[in-house]
């Protein structure tokens, strides 16, 4: 199992007992409609299933938590997935934590994990009607691939236009 620490967040695997916190954080149509794989309506069963998924060592996913006086609080999720044979960065943040930089902070840590795992490139995308995600992706240094393309969103139940991006993860070579 992988863990990561940023300035404000602990990135850790999800555990089956996290399903209620997950359900409370993601059960918001404004979040789910911007995701490709999460269904809407989001159900307790979907939360139980996601929280119980085994970790893939090449494509880890993380629950983003903030330390509190009595444990931790789930802020969102960030991780790597496989899309058409390529490593893809994905993330979401609970509405009450929007605009605080958590997506960018967590994604930077996951990008470094992807590099450590030996991924050579990392892809990322956002639906065109989600400008907040576009700002995160651009801050991270991803490069746009071209015109928007259709992508299925389980949360929308249909295809929507999506902007795609790539980041080269090859280590920087020092001049000899």
TrEMBL record:
One GO molecular-function entry: acyltransferase activity, transferring groups other than amino-acyl groups
UniProt KW keywords: Acyltransferase, Transferase
Top-level taxon in the UniProt lineage: Bacteria
Acyltransferase found in the keyword field: yes
Gene3D superfamilies: 3.40.630.30
Keyword Acyltransferase recorded: yes
Organism: Alterisphingorhabdus coralli
Family, per entry: Belongs to the acetyltransferase family. RimJ subfamily.
PANTHER family: [RIBOSOMAL PROTEIN US5]-ALANINE N-ACETYLTRANSFERASE (PTHR43792:SF8), GNAT FAMILY, PUTATIVE (AFU_ORTHOLOGUE AFUA_3G00765)-RELATED-RELATED (PTHR43792)
Pfam families recorded: Acetyltransf_3
Protein's name in the database: GNAT family N-acetyltransferase
All copies of domain N-acetyltransferase, residue ranges: 9-172
């Amino acid at each position: 199992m992988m863990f990561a620490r940023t300035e404000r967040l602990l990135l850790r695997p999800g555990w089956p007992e996290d399903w209620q916190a997950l359900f409370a954080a993601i059960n918001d149509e404004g979040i789910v409609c911007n995701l490709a794989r999460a269904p809407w309506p989001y159900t307790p069963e979907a939360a139980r299933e996601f929280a119980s998924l085994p970790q893939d060592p090449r494509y880890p996913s993380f629950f983003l938590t903030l330390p509190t006086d009595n444990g931790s609080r789930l802020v969102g999720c960030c991780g790597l997935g496989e899309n058409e044979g390529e490593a893809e960065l994905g993330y979401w943040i609970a509405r009450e934590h929007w605009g605080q930089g958590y997506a960018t902070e967590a994604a930077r840590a996951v990008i470094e994990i992807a590099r450590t795992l030996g991924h050579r490139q990392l892809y990322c995308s956002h639906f065109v009607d989600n400008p907040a995600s576009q700002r995160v992706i651009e801050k991270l240094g991803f490069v746009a691939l071209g015109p928007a393309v259709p992508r299925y969103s389980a949360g929308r139940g249909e295809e929507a236009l999506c902007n795609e991006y790539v980041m080269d993860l090859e280590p920087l070579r020092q001049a000899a």
